[in-house]
Amino acid sequence: MKKGVDGSRGVCYTVCVMRNFLIYYRPDVHQGRENTKGLAFNYNVEVEEQFANYSEQDKCAGITAKCTETGEWKRFRWDRILSMVAVS
After folding, report:
1. Which structural domain range is residue 32 located in?
2. Which residues, in sequence order, are bridge partners of residue 21?
3. Per the domain annotation, does 67 fall within a domain?
4. CATH of the domain at 79
5. What's the CA gap between 27 and 24, in Å, rounded?
6. Of 7, 16, 28, 85, which is most buried with the most CB atoms under 10 A?
């Protein structure tokens, strides 16, 4: 049985198997401005890799992905992702 990059069989394993997702996300900052209203946005992305937050001792804090609509690279923290649906 395969395990995720952090040794578990959790969210990070899913990202290793699938690449394209529709993410519904509530960012801290959106288009360079603080998201004071707490709005959430949809992003069509191709997932590249996970990232860590070593200052919080979190080996899998979120994912790095390329937006398929704009070509911009974005980072999505797991604690701000509201939904994440695989697309073909």
Report:
1. 11-86
2. 45, 86
3. yes
4. 2.30.30
5. 10
6. 16
